[in-house]
Amino acid sequence: MIRKAVLPVAGLGTRCLPASKAIPKEMITIVDKPVIQYVVEEAVAAGIKEIVLVTHSSKGAIEDHFDKHFELETTLEAKGKQELLEELRNIIPDDVKIISVRQPEALGLGHAVSCARPVIGDDEPFAVLLPDVLVDGHGLAQNDLAGMMKAYEDSGQSQIMVENVPEEMTHKYGIVALKGDTPEAGHSAPMASVVEKPAAGEAPSTLAVIGRYLLPGSIFALLEKTQPGAGGEIQLTDAIDTLIAREGVQAFRMQGETYDCGHQLGYLEAILVFAKRHPKFGEGFQNLMQRYAVEE
After folding, report:
1. In contact, 49 and 146? CB cutoff 8 Å
2. Cα(57)–Cα(294) distance, rounded to whole angstroms?
3. Which tens digits make up the pLDDT trace of 203-260?
4. Spatial contact of 93 and 220, defined as CB atoms under 8 Å apart
5. Do residues 217 and 148 make contact, with C-beta atoms less than 8 angstroms apart?
6. What CA–CA distance (Å, rounded) separates 126 from 6?
7. Measured between alpha carbons, how far apart are the two ends of the chain, in Å?
8. Residues 146-159: what's their mean pLDDT?
9. What's the CA gap between 226 and 239, in Å, rounded?
10. What three-state secondary structure class fits 85?
11. Mean pLDDT of 73-92
12. How far apart are the C-alpha atoms of 59 and 107, rounded to whole Å?
């Protein structure tokens, strides 16, 4: 059973500027919770018990968010604000640990993942969740990460979550090539390779990697030997390509929806979706939408 997840949060968030100049991009809110909390909740719902934040000295707000705030809790309790107090205390379940490690330099996603090696170890599989991508499992019996974890356990092979994207958008993503037919949603298929941001017209498929990975501990040794690739960075996709040749890797086609909160329009779409069904603000938000939909 996979129990650990790595969340690389050390990036500067340049796509979110100027909002991310003084606030970590992962702390920008969707309705009433920061993006990072939704991603952690996704991991916890799938059974993850240890969250490893690969962070940077400027990202202390993320660690603070998941830490206990004794003074604030005491004040809320004294004022009888029990509902707010319970929300704060339930940000992280008692049986889930948050562990932080530093990425001293921005040397790519592969390097960020390798920074978690002392915590994960070389003998245990683990998940990687990119925190600027929300994977929405609303209405599913289990979220896609849990489905991908089951596929890992059934097959014994690494899993990369993918979704179909328009052909004209493939140059923005890592794109997988399959050894056979495209799997149905909720199922996996063996990968032949993965190409990072292929040039227009050169993508091997329209299945894009969307920021969820299940990898063996052996990936760390591969990352250690991986030379800088695109952008002079250590690319996780390069190590995964080696893993494909050695052990085999599968592409898991997701069932839910994704929202790229590192892009302004993706962030706004996420707000619309999550606000509409919010238990406290949903009805009021839909009334607002109706009001502004008819205004010029």
Report:
1. no
2. 46
3. 899 999 999 999 999 999 999 998 887 677 888 988 999 999 999 999 999 999 999 9
4. no
5. no
6. 7
7. 54
8. 96
9. 6
10. helix
11. 92
12. 17
Structure tokens at 50: 């240890």
Whole-model pTM: value is 0.93
Please tell me the distance from the alpha carbon of residue 89 to that of residue 169, in angstroms, as a whole number.
41
Q: Which residues contact 34 (CB under 8 A, 6 or more apart)?
A: 26, 27, 28, 65
Answer with the residue of higher pLDDT: 96 or 172: 96
The answer for residues whose C-beta is within 8 angstroms of residue 296's C-beta and 6 or more apart is none
DSSP annotation string for 201-218: T--S-SEEEEEEEEE-TT
Per the CB < 8 A criterion, the answer to whether 253 and 207 are in contact is: yes
Q: Are 51 and 135 in contact (CB under 8 A)?
A: no
Residue 55 contacts residue 7 (beta carbons within 8 Å): no
User: What six digits make up the tokens of 253?
Assistant: 């086609």
Domains of the chain: 4-293 (3.90.550.10)
H or E segment and range at residue 287: helix 282-293
CA dist., res. 134 & res. 197, Å (int): 20
CA–CA dist 46, 287 (Å, integer): 33
Which residue type, as a one-letter code, is found at position 30? I
In 47-119 the beta strands, taken as DSSP E runs, fall at 50-55, 97-102
Residue 62 to residue 209: CA distance in whole angstroms: 25
* Best CA proximity match to 217, nearest among 113, 115, 108, 126: 126
* 268, pLDDT greater than 80: yes
